[in-house]
């Protein structure tokens, strides 16, 4: 099908058929703020921040769910639009706590960004006592914290659980001002269908969901992302290690739904996202060890490597290469496996090399 | 078929049934048997007559004698006097509230005089549990005509010509809506009947479903044929158990008669119909939320486009109409579009059913031609204001509607006029308010409802109606601030402009219209801490006139919080700090020394 | 996997056998679930345990453990009987059809039902759905391979796919899901006793010549010993020195009692790892290695996609990347490896000797993964194998008869024990038990069917002891109908309660894979 031609803010643009106004604007470098939209999930139309005006249409249109039609003339920042956005934002801020200073999402909070963009510091509708305190701070599991007082009910978590994780462990519950995101009535999240893949945490635009072990590990502006592949099963999910530049330590692990190279398309499981702390474990080996009787003593690399070379060489000399065996590892890289079998075959002259393919 | 010399029609609508009509019916059968009249007189359970306030209602034919508020112990007398001796039982006749005259015949009752009962024509007249009675009143003839003599396109053309518009609130032309769905590509389509009537006080759809379920079935089948659908759902709220039971019976009987299912009447047209019970969420009356609910998801509106006609239930083209709209269809197809279009105004054709409630003498279900004035409904059908108090306003269209005032009394009731005046046709709630109704309190009542029923998805509806409600609450409690009125106005306008669905888009209407027409009442609450109607409890002050008080101590003894002091035979005094404004003192004062204000 | 993940979107029927996909390969599980939940495929799940996937299955088959060959032969019986097989495809591409037909002739649904405990109608439903396709994919994992008849199980899976022509197109394929991040790569790299990189057999002169040309060294022609055989040989004193890199044999190998004996018997044991594992504790020299996130390199995933892994943080203390250690050891022993100084230069060496990696470079991998075979630098990689037929011309059916498992419940050991993983842990648990996941699931829970729990008189959370002819472990009971009556399931992540003390080191004669999935045991309240 042919590309759609339309005009946004006076600029002629071209978009793929089926694109929403928001998608088309984004593809053409035009910014429209939003809180409920996210590339990982289907459009929802809940937050009403992305409202825009279109010629010949008396109503404000949500850019995230309205398809761009040929010849459409769209305005994304008229006074009417800005006024509506501010009104909606100020309504969100009536109940949303403004203790950003101590919030784990400070610096990556999308609500903060929208408020900043619209020049809104606080809600003019808020009365004393309006700030939400109706929910308990939930931190019973080791993976993530739920602080629903900060939840803006954008529904990203519900959609990502349904559409990406394929679980539907949570949904909207209650009505009116009592609406909240919950697992089925009567079961805590730990006993629900939740499998703690953490995709909901990643897409949460505010601080309602946060990673427990990432707390204190690094502010968003200290983070550098390193793209790599998960270390667990054979699926080979692309993940990002978030490194705190100041400490040089891992802060947390995330995925990227928009990465063209990700075979997992941004999806993850509990191990890939949350089981990385072993890297920083106190139990890590930090020096070579050499046995002395029933115990080990620390040794230098030079001493340890010399001992290995000497012992292996001596066994080969006395009993032949086939008296040696080499266990390689499915956990190590191709390069390392390659070297291991060359060590066995080329240096020691034996084909006794294997790994745990079948275990 | 046996012939009977008389028929006793006993209303079995929800109102009369809860008033004991099944027991009345049983007693009739027993009494007739005792008198050996059971072969001559047939007793029939019917649907609603609309005057539920006067139920249980019993109508005896051939005379059409209209007995109201009949109790089981009255039955023996009716059988003995009326059916045996042929003498009408005067004391049980309906008493007309305006003239206080007893009225003998159905047709003479002014309540029915101005009505034009098309959709309700079978209600109260046939036994809804018997398909034969529906058929004997030309039932299913329209369906037969459509599927054997007319092309689907011709059916849609006829609907367009009739000018019928959606009776659920939106008022979208039905024929046009059908043509969209018919034009959508796809070999699987659905038709849905929205029977999730949720406006407080509204029971139009319930009465139709209970009194004439086959009309709805027939209408849906004609629509399905016209649009190429082969499956339908009736989404009915679970709070309507009787309607659901009647629908089940109707579906069962129609299926047995070959009118529903595979190859209807031997044609290629097949249609399957299911009932889906809703769990009583108001928002499920919104069509996209309703479809989500049928699919087993939480009832939350979805953005449109895509419209249901393109991507509806399970992603297939779907047409949704409400009960009253569907029930109109067979009549239109049978009598012709012209006949229907002859009723009403230029742009609003046919009739509309309203649930008339509030401070009028006659309340109940009324069906009036479009274009009738509000004055006619209030004063002629409704019989005027109770206690001949002063008319103040009508709230039309339920929580999404607005208030109209005295200057609108001669406004014709049609879609355009109502909308222009700030109200909406809505699904047909019509509440009459008099001088004792506080308009701030009325607006608060409706906003409380919409806030409680908001699905919570979009920000303006969820957060905005809550903030408006907070403001209204503080105004009615005497804590309002002058700037609150501007805030209410601004928030109301923004919520209307930014909400996702019609629930939020119309929720501010009751506030905005009362602000427009009764701003002075709001101002009195805020500036003078006074409720002009005397309805807002927090603003009430009970005072004892020392000149009138005889010191009998009765008020003090009846005060639940002991806030009245005074010695015997001396004037008493109310401690305003402690008073909870319960009114017990005033009710018990033997000399009328206590006043509120 | 013959096919890539993208291919799942084209599958009309998906057959999962012996794979608890949502727990062991959760992301692939989500792709399959998505296809099913969108109503785009028919799902057949065959597993003795009522795993989560069973909930979504159109046909759920709960075969007895160890009866897979019979079950699959039964499917093929129905398909041939009803003439649903891809006759033209078979004629053109596969040898030995008559032999297959002969073999499966006696596997009537009724006969198979007797072996598997599955209703004949279910076998027929599954057979028809798979054969109908038009595109049907098979997914399997250790539930197929970890049997002493594992090779026959795999052959029979392949027979089924060949019979219906379910190869070479999107939505089809024989798709074993690899259990470890780089098990595919380790195999590709020749860490197997009989092949050098690229599956070039050491027994063939051409392969040895190639090694000589590229490496400049003679390599031995006799295939070496497998992991389990090496362990046996160590126990017998035939192997005297062992170099173990990144493996915790004490926990993951079968019959852990025997493993301890074998390792203790060694003259010299080097263990290179990130932790002082149960295995490392027995070593003479322990070399500290860098972990994931601390080194560069490549992994090859289950669908043959070669991907770059990158260093994000420094290693603690003096720990070094494994490649650096191996290079150092080799060089100390005189290897002329000066061309290899970094992961990238090592990878270039790999590409030289491995035809299927020949076209892959680090530079190309920056733009995304490449699926081997990728024989040239302008080759786009091969996400789906066999799109243009089989490399050897025609494939062969390898008909197999069902054989009873090596060990079966009897009077003395009346229960069948099977082992596996749980979602929150991984393998020996050395990583997951030191992470958040370790705080969530702290100890082994043994799954017991409610009926068995009643007759044992034990409730959820109470302790039981499971014993086999080889060993015994105790753990808390989890009463669940995920396991059928007569079966218990033990996760093997917990070294303090090693499930592998129960398992037998009896292996499949070809793949050398132990029969982890079937052990006869006794269960008692403790």
UniProtKB/TrEMBL annotation, chain C:
Tell me where in this chain the Molybdopterin dinucleotide-binding domain is found: 416-518
Q: What class of enzyme is it?
A: oxidoreductase
Q: Which GO terms describe its biological process?
A: respiratory electron transport chain
- Show the Pfam families listed in the entry: Molybdopterin, Molydop_binding
What InterPro entries does this protein's entry cite? Asp_de-COase-like_dom_sf (IPR009010), CT_Formate-Dh_H (IPR041925), MoPterin_dinucl-bd_dom (IPR006657), Mopterin_OxRdtase (IPR006656), Prok_molybdopt-oxidoreductase (IPR050123)
> Where do the Molybdopterin oxidoreductase domain residues begin and end?
1-331
Q: Which GO terms describe its molecular function?
A: formate dehydrogenase (NAD+) activity; iron-sulfur cluster binding; metal ion binding; molybdopterin cofactor binding; NADH dehydrogenase activity
Q: What is its EC number?
A: 1.17.1.9
Question: Which cellular component terms (GO) are annotated to the entry?
Answer: membrane
Which keywords belong to this entry?
A: Iron, Iron-sulfur, Metal-binding, Oxidoreductase
Q: Could you tell me what this protein is called?
A: Formate dehydrogenase H
Q: Which organism is it from?
A: bioreactor metagenome
Source organism phylogeny: unclassified sequences, metagenomes, ecological metagenomes
Question: What gene is this protein translated from?
Answer: fdhF_9
């Amino acid at each position: 099908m042919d590309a759609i031609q339309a005009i946004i803010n006076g600029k002629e643009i071209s978009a793929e058929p089926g694109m929403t106004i928001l998608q088309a604007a984004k593809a053409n470098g035009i910014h429209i703020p939003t809180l409920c939209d996210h590339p990982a999930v289907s459009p929802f139309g809940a937050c009403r921040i992305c409202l825009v005006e279109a010629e010949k249409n008396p109503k404000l249109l949500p850019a995230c769910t309205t398809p761009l039609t040929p010849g459409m003339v769209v305005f994304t920042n008229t006074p009417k639009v800005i006024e509506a956005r501010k009104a909606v934002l100020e309504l969100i801020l009536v109940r949303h706590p403004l203790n950003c200073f101590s919030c784990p999402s400070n610096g990556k909070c999308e609500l903060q960004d929208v408020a900043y963009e619209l020049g809104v510091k606080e809600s003019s509708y808020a009365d004393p006592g309006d700030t939400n305190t109706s929910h308990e701070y939930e931190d019973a599991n080791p993976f993530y914290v739920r602080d629903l007082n900060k939840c803006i009910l954008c529904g990203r978590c519900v959609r990502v659980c349904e559409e990406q994780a394929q679980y539907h462990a949570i949904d909207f519950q209650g009505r009116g001002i009592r609406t909240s995101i919950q697992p089925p009535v009567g079961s805590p999240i730990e006993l629900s269908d939740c499998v703690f893949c953490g995709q909901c945490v990643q897409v949460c635009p505010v601080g309602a969901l946060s990673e427990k072990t990432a707390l204190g590990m690094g502010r968003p502006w200290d983070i550098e992302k390193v793209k790599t592949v998960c270390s667990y099963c054979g699926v080979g999910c692309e993940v990002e290690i978030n490194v705190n530049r100041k400490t040089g330590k891992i802060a947390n692990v995330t995925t990227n739904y928009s990465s063209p190279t990700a075979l997992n398309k941004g999806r993850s499981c509990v191990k890939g996202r949350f089981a990385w702390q072993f890297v920083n474990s106190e139990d890590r080996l930090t020096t070579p060890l050499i046995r002395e009787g029933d115990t080990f003593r620390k040794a230098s690399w030079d001493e340890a490597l010399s001992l290995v070379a000497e012992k292996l060489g001596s066994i080969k000399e006395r009993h032949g290469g086939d008296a040696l065996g080499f266990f390689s590892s499915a956990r190590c890289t191709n390069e390392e496996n390659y070297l291991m079998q060359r060590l066995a075959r080329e240096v020691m002259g034996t084909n006794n090399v294997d790994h745990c393919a079948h275990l | 078929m046996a012939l009977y010399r008389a028929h006793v029609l006993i209303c079995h609508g929800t109102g009369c049934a809860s008033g004991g009509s099944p027991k009345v019916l049983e007693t009739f059968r027993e009494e007739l048997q005792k008198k050996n009249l059971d072969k001559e007189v047939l007793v029939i359970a019917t649907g609603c007559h609309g005057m539920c306030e006067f139920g249980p209602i019993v109508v005896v034919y051939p005379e059409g004698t209209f007995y109201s508020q009949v109790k089981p112990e009255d039955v023996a007398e009716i059988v003995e006097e009326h059916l045996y001796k042929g003498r009408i039982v005067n004391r049980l006749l309906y008493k007309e509230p305006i003239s206080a005259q007893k009225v003998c015949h159905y047709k003479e009752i002014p309540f029915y005089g101005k009505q034009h009962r098309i959709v309700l024509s079978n209600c109260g007249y046939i036994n809804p549990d018997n398909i034969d009675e529906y058929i004997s009143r030309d039932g299913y003839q329209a369906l037969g005509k459509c599927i054997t003599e007319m092309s689907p396109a011709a059916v849609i053309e006829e609907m367009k010509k009739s000018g019928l518009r959606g009776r659920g609130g939106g008022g979208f032309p039905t024929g046009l809506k059908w043509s969209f769905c018919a034009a959508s590509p796809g070999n699987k389509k659905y038709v849905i009947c929205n029977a999730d009537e949720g406006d407080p006080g509204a029971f139009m759809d319930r009465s139709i479903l209970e009194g004439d379920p086959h009309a709805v079935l027939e209408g849906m089948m004609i629509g399905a044929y016209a649009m190429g659908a082969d499956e339908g759902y009736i989404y009915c709220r679970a709070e309507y158990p009787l309607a659901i039971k009647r629908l089940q019976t109707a579906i069962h009987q129609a299926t047995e008669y070959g009118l529903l299912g595979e190859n209807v009447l031997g044609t290629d047209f097949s249609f399957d119909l299911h009932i889906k019970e809703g769990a009583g969420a108001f928002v499920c009356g919104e069509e996209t939320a309703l479809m989500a609910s049928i699919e087993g998801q939480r009832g939350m509106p979805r953005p449109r486009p895509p419209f249901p006609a393109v991507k509806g239930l399970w992603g297939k083209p779907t047409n949704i109409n409400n009960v009253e709209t569907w029930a109109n269809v067979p009549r239109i197809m049978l009598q012709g579009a012209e006949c229907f279009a002859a009723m009403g105004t230029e742009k609003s054709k046919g009739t509309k059913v309203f649930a008339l409630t509030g401070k009028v003498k006659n309340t109940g279900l009324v069906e009036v031609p479009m274009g009738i004035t509000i004055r006619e409904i209030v004063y002629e059908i409704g019989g005027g204001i109770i206690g001949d108090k002063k008319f103040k306003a009508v709230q039309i269209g339920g929580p999404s509607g607005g208030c109209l005032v005295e200057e609108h009394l001669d406004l014709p009731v049609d879609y355009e006029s109502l909308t222009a005046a700030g109200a909406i046709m809505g699904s047909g709630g019509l509440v009459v308010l008099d001088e004792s109704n506080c308009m701030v309190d009325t607006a608060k009542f409706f906003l409380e409802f919409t806030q409680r029923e908001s699905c919570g998805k979009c920000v303006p509806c969820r957060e905005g109606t809550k903030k408006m409600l907070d403001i209204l609450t503080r105004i009615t409690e005497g804590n309002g601030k002058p700037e609150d009125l501007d805030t209410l106005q601004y928030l109301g306008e923004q919520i209307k402009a930014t909400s996702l669905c019609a629930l939020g888009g119309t929720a501010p209407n009751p506030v905005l219209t009362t602000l427009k027409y009764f701003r002075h009442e709001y101002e009195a609450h805020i500036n003078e801490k006074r409720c002009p109607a005397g309805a807002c409890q927090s603003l009430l002050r009970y005072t004892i006139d020392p000149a009138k008080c005889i010191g009998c101590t009765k008020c003090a003894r009846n005060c639940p919080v002991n806030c009245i002091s005074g010695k015997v035979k001396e004037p008493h005094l109310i401690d305003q700090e402690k008073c909870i404004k319960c009114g017990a003192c005033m009710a018990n004062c033997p000399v009328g020394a206590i006043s509120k204000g | 996997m013959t096919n890539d993940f993208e291919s799942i979107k084209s599958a009309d029927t998906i057959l999962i056998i012996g794979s608890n996909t949502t727990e062991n390969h959760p992301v692939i599980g989500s792709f399959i679930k998505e296809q099913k939940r969108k109503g785009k495929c028919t799902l057949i799940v065959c597993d003795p345990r009522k795993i989560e996937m069973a909930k979504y299955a159109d046909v759920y088959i709960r075969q007895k453990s160890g009866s897979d060959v019979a079950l699959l032969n039964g499917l093929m019986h129905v398909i041939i009987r009803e003439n649903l097989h891809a006759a033209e495809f078979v004629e053109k591409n596969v040898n030995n059809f008559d032999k297959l037909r002969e073999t499966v002739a006696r596997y009537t649904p009724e006969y198979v039902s007797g072996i598997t405990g599955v209703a004949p109608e279910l076998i027929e439903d599954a057979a028809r759905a798979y054969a109908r396709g038009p595109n049907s994919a098979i997914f399997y994992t250790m539930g197929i391979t970890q049997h002493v008849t594992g090779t026959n199980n795999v052959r029979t899976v392949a027979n089924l796919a060949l019979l219906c022509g379910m190869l070479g197109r999107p939505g089809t394929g024989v798709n074993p899901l690899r259990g470890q991040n780089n098990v595919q790569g380790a195999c590709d790299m020749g860490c197997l006793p009989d092949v050098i990189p690229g599956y070039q057999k050491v027994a063939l002169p051409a392969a040895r010549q190639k090694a000589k040309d590229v490496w400049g060294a003679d390599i031995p022609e006799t295939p070496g010993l497998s992991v389990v055989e090496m362990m046996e040989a160590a126990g017998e004193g035939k192997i005297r020195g062992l170099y173990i890199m990144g493996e915790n044999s004490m926990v993951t190998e079968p019959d852990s009692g025997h493993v301890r004996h074998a390792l203790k018997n060694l003259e010299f044991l080097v263990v290179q790892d990130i932790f002082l594992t149960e295995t490392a504790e027995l070593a003479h020299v322990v070399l500290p290695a860098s972990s994931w996130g601390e080194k560069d390199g490549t992994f090859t995933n289950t669908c043959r996609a070669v991907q770059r892994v990158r260093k994000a943080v420094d290693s603690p203390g003096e720990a070094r990347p494994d490649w650096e250690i191996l290079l150092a050891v080799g060089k100390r022993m005189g290897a002329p490896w000066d061309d290899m100084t970094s992961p990238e230069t090592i990878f270039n060496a790999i590409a030289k000797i491995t035809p299927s990696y020949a076209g892959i470079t680090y530079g190309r991998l920056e733009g995304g993964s490449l699926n081997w075979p990728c024989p040239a630098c302008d080759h786009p990689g091969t996400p789906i194998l066999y799109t243009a037929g089989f490399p050897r011309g025609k494939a062969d059916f390898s008909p197999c008869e069902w054989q009873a498992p090596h060990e079966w419940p009897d009077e003395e050991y009346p229960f069948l024990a099977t082992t596996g993983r749980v979602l929150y842990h991984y393998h020996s648990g050395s990583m997951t038990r030191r992470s958040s996941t370790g705080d969530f699931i702290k100890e082994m829970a043994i799954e017991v069917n409610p009926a068995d729990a009643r007759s044992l008189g034990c409730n959820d959370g109470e302790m039981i002891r499971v014993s086999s002819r080889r060993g015994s472990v105790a753990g808390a009971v989890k009463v669940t109908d995920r396991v059928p009556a007569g079966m218990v399931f033990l996760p093997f992540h917990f070294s303090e309660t090693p499930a592998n003390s129960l398992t037998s080191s009896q292996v499949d004669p070809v793949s050398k894979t132990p029969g982890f999935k079937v052990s006869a045991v006794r269960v008692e309240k403790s």
